[in-house]
Amino acid sequence: MSPKFAHPSSDAVKLIAVHSDQLDTALAALEPARADWLKATGFDGAIGAHALLSGATGGVALAVVGLGKTGQSRTRFAIAAGASRLPEGVYTLATEMTGAALDEAALGLLLTGYRFDRYKPAKAPLPAFTAPAGVDATRLEALAAGECLTRDLINTPASDMGPAELAAAAQSLAQAHGASCTVTLGDDLLEQNFPLIHTVGRASPRAPRLIDMRWGQSGPKLTLVGKGVCFDTGGLNLKPGASMGLMKKDMGGAATVLGLAHMIMALGLAVQLRVLIPAVENAVDGSAFRPGDVLTSRKGLTVEINNTDAEGRLVLADALALADEDQPDQIISMATLTGAARVAVGPDLAPFYTTDDTMARALPQAAGEVADPVWQMPFHAPYEAMIEPEIADLDNAPSGGFAGSITAALFLRRFVTATPYTHFDIYGWNPTAAPARPKGGTGQGARALLAALPEVLDL
C-alpha cells in the first residue's frame, strides 16, 4: 500500500526541523526548559538527530529532527533521516520552508512510510505525517504511489515477477486508470512481429511477450518504453553467480516507466500516453540464441550477437521500432542496461541521452528542483563505427570495453528515426539505505521527467 498523508488531528504532535548551524536560533525560540533539555541530551541538529519533548501532562508535545548544515546538498530528503526514527503517532511539520525545499521535505516524510512487506511483516508501527501547509498533497501522494509501485516491482523476486506477472501488474495499473492494455505473446505472433523479443525470451518456459498500454485521447503523444528482463542469466554467455544475484532488478526500466505512467495518469496530464514493455526472461536451454548468430529485427536491421548477455538492447530495439512507427511527439526509454553507466556515474545518478535540445535543457533543471538527480551523456557520433560489424548492420556487444553505455545508447538510437528520443541507462537499486530510500529497488529519473514534460511537450 502506498503511503498517504494522515488526516489533520488535534492530537498530532508538532514537528520542527532544525539546521545544525542554526541550532542556537532554534533553541532560543523554544521555552527555556525545552531548550535546556535538548542541550542536555546532546541534540545537535545533524542529519538523523531526533528528540521528543513532553508536555505538561507527560505526553509527547514536540518532536525535533536535524537537517544538517544549511545549504548542504549531499543528502536528499534529509528530514526523513530523523523523522523515520520517531515512534508511532501523527506528526505535523511546522516549518518556514517553501517551494521546492518544502515539497522535498513533504515527499521525504511520505516515503518514510514505504516498506516491502510482501514476505515479512514490518517489525514496528510507523510514524505518520500530515501534509504540511503549502504543498499539493494530491500531487505528492501520486509521486509517492508511483515510486512505491516501482520499488515493489523491482523488489519482488523473479520467482514471483516473471513476464506474466509483469504483464498482470501493467494490466492492473491500466484498469485502475481506465487505460487499455494488450499483451502480444505466442511463438507465431512474436517471431513474426517482434523477432528479437522472441529470440531473447524463447529459452525460458515463461513465455516472452510485449505489453502495450494506452491512455488519453488528446494532447501530445508520449511513448514510454521500459526494459522488462525479469531475470537475466546472461544466456549462453552465463553470468558468474556474483553478477546474477541482483538480476531480479533487470526489469527496473519497466518498473520505472510503470511508476511514471501512474504519476501521469493520476495527475491527469493532457497527453496521449503509450507504454511499451518487452517482457522476457533470458534463460538457458537448447533453444537459446548463440554468440555469432545474426538476427533480423522488426525494423529490418540485422544484428550480430557477440554476447548473449547484452540482451536488453535487443528487446528494446523491437519495442522502439514499434514506438517509432506511431510517430509520437516524444519517445523515452528506461533500462538497467549497462554496467558501464554504473562505473561512469555510480548508482545514485541516472544518466540520460537525448536528441531533443528542449529535453536536454529542461530535464537537468527539473531534476534539481525535485531531488531526482540526472546527468546528460553524449550520443557521440564518432563511436557509431564501434557498433558496425563486418557481417551485419549492428553489433550488440562491441569488443574493447570502451564507452559501453554510449555504444548501447547509439545502438538503440538506430531504431528511432521519426521522433525525438531520450534514453535512460539507470541502475534501479539503492545499494545502501538512505533517507526515504531503503536498500533495494528504487525509481530513477521518473520525477525529473514528470517535472520536465510540461516544457518538453508544451503542455
From TrEMBL:
BP term (GO), one: proteolysis
Keyword hit for Transmembrane helix: yes
InterPro entries noted in UniProt: Leucine_aapep/pepB, Macro_dom-like, Peptidase_M17_C, Peptidase_M17_N_1
Keyword entries, A-Z: Aminopeptidase, Hydrolase, Manganese, Membrane, Protease, Transmembrane, Transmembrane helix
Ranges for domain Cytosol aminopeptidase: 307-314
GO CC entries: cytoplasm
Annotated Gene3D superfamilies: Leucine Aminopeptidase, subunit E, domain 1, Zn peptidases
Residues annotated as transmembrane: 47-67, 253-273
Pfam entry (one): Peptidase_M17_N_1
Molecular function GO labels: manganese ion binding; metalloaminopeptidase activity
Family to which the UniProt record says this protein belongs: Belongs to the peptidase M17 family.
PANTHER family assigned: LEUCINE AMINOPEPTIDASE-RELATED (PTHR11963), PEPTIDASE B (PTHR11963:SF20)
Protein name (Swiss-Prot/TrEMBL): Leucyl aminopeptidase
